[in-house]
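Late entry, written up from scratch paper. The run itself happened at the end of the previous shift, but nothing got recorded in the book at the time, so transcribing now.
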Amino acid sequence: MQLASPEATIAATDTFVPLPTSTATVASSPSYQPLSADECNNLHVAISQGVGSPGSIQDPALFTDYTNQKSGTGCLMSFSLTSATGANGMDSVVTSVLQNRGWTENTSYAAAGPADVLDGYQNADALCLLEFTSAPSDASLCPKDANYYQCLGDLQPYQVVHTVTVNCARLMP
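Output as recorded:
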């Protein structure tokens, strides 16, 4: 006697049910909006004058507050320099500009790696997220198998590009 193999049938359905995922998502409803055009432009001008570079501005730009799991749009300013003062000089200039305008550091946004530093500054219901990065002016100057931090340190100041991005937004009620 031979056993019959069971047959399974799957009924067709017209409803799609997504599988659960483990990917963390940021709140779907926008919680942040850019600073006013005047606030953003004034801050951009002050930082530009301080770092000695006109930089660029993008308004609106994506804004994500990873600490509080909220997102929306912000006013994104970016400045790049190749100089001996480098990241340390830009870091202190940008933070001074923010502090002189009433912004206070929020260390819950602070993080550092070999070639980048993150920080956050708040002013009432507004938040500016800062990212300072350093990279070789030409990727071939630091081979993939080299110690990146040591390689950057071995380069001449003109061979390292220091960039700061400042993304500011206001939390909406």
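The chain has three helices and eight strands.
(Scratch paper discarded after transcription.)
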